[in-house]
Each structure stands twice: as structure tokens, then as C-alpha cells.
Amino acid sequence: MNDDIRREIRRETRFLRGYAILMTAAAGVIALAAFRVSPAQERTFTEIDVQRINIVEPDGKLRMVISNRPRSIGPIYKGKPFGYAGGTRPGMIFFNDEGTENGGMTFSGSRDAQGRYNATSSWSFDQFDNDQVLTMQYVDQNGRRRTGITVGDRAEANIYEWVLRRDSINAIADTVARRAAMEKLMAPVNGVPLYATRLYAGRDVAKNAVVNLSDPQGRIRLRLRVDSLGRASVDFLDDGGRVTFSLPDSARR
Predict the structure, then answer these.
(1) What's the CA gap between 203 and 120, in Å, rounded?
(2) This prediction's pTM
(3) Residue 4 in 3-state DSSP?
(4) Which long-range contacts (CB under 8 A, 24 or more apart) does 54-57 make?
(5) Bridge partner residues of 51 (DSSP)
(6) Which has the closest alpha carbon to 209: 184, 193, 190, 229?
(7) What whole-number distance in Å separates Cα of residue 198 and Cα of residue 174?
(8) Do residues 217 and 196 touch, judged by C-beta distance below 8 A?
(9) pLDDT tens readout for residues 196-216
(10) 68 within 8 A of 108, measured Cβ to Cβ
(11) 196, 199, 204, 210 alpha-carbon torsion, rounded to 10°
């Protein structure tokens, strides 16, 4: 091979190398430009398939998570997971300004091998640093269903600290000591139950339309009902659950 051919080959090799570098750089720039979105830009999609969407604040704190079941999020307190792992709550979970879960919408429904079904839909709102106190819920166990709104009271207990104590108690090997510690944990705080239903309005499993008003201990004291046959009644109850006055029956005596 003479010198002229060698020089020509070297020139072509340098050209091809430079061309390859240039095209690689150009492809990188195009890819970055395609995915870079400035704060002022918006993108519009006709349709999108996604398993999970995280809505976050500029500092990265979660504000909302929309997901399927496998990618659903577990409880979060100030950005820290606790309680149990994700993977059980398909739907939408909300978070407050501190990155703590404060409610959400969840739903499920399926049949088993025998054809029996279970279905639930729930929209709940949590007390600050605690669990749900307002819930709209549908629960259906193969036709045995209830649908309603529940308002509850909760003691001033921090849910994150409470769950850590519960998990620590569950790890106690001694059965008697574990049971005693758990009873103490579940006891009222300054006389206030950890949770007490104060109001339920809805349709119960006996097909009654009901409004139950309860005392601070969660005991029903006033019940308004229209039963499955259309009969209306009003019951007043004592703290033991006994009816002390009823309309229309008591008025007829």
C-alpha cells in the first residue's frame, strides 16, 4: 500500500470519527430538548396509560398519589413511611403541607371462585396527625351492603407515635405482658376514646335508612329510622343501649 492510499484512509477515518461524534452529540441534544419542560411550558396528551402519578410540591413533598394496587403507597408521616407497606390501596391518597397523609379515595371490587363478590368505595378525611374522622363509604359483601356518611371523634394522639408504640408492643414475647400493654395503649386518652363514631347517616345492611347520633363515648343515644317497609320511628336510648322513649310507640301509651 503506497503513501497516498494510507493518507486517504486516514482522512476518511478521521472524517467518519468526527461525523459519529457529531451525530451522537446532536442526538443527545435532541433527546434532552424533547423531554425538557420549562416551568412556563405545558404539555397536552390525548390519552395516557400510567401505573402511578405523584403530585409534588417544588421541594419534593407529596401532595397527592394516584396509583393502581401494586404501586399504591402506604401510610406516610412527614415524608416517612410507617405502619405497613404499600400495594394494598388503589386510588388516590392526599397529603398535607407537611407531607403527611390526610385522606384519600380508595376502591375495590371482585368475585371469588364461587362467584361471591366483595366491593368497597371510600372517600375519607383525616384528623391532623391522626386517622380518618369523616368518611363516605360503600361496603358490599355479596349483596349485604351499607352506604353512608360517618363522622367521628378521635383523641389527641399522634398516629405516627401511636403506631410505633403498637409495633413495639406486638414484638413483646410474653403474651400476658403484651396483652396488658396493648390494653393500656387502646385505653382512652384523658377520658376520650381513641375513636368514637358521633354520627352515621345512610342505609344499613337491614335496608333501613338511618341517622344515628352518638355520645362522646360512641354510644347511640338517638336513632331516626325508616325501615325496609317504609315505617318511620325515632328512638331515644340510654348509655346502656336501652330504648327509653320511642315514637310513635311511646306516644300511644
Answers:
(1) 15
(2) 0.77
(3) helix
(4) none
(5) none
(6) 229
(7) 36
(8) yes
(9) 999 999 999 999 999 999 999
(10) no
(11) 150
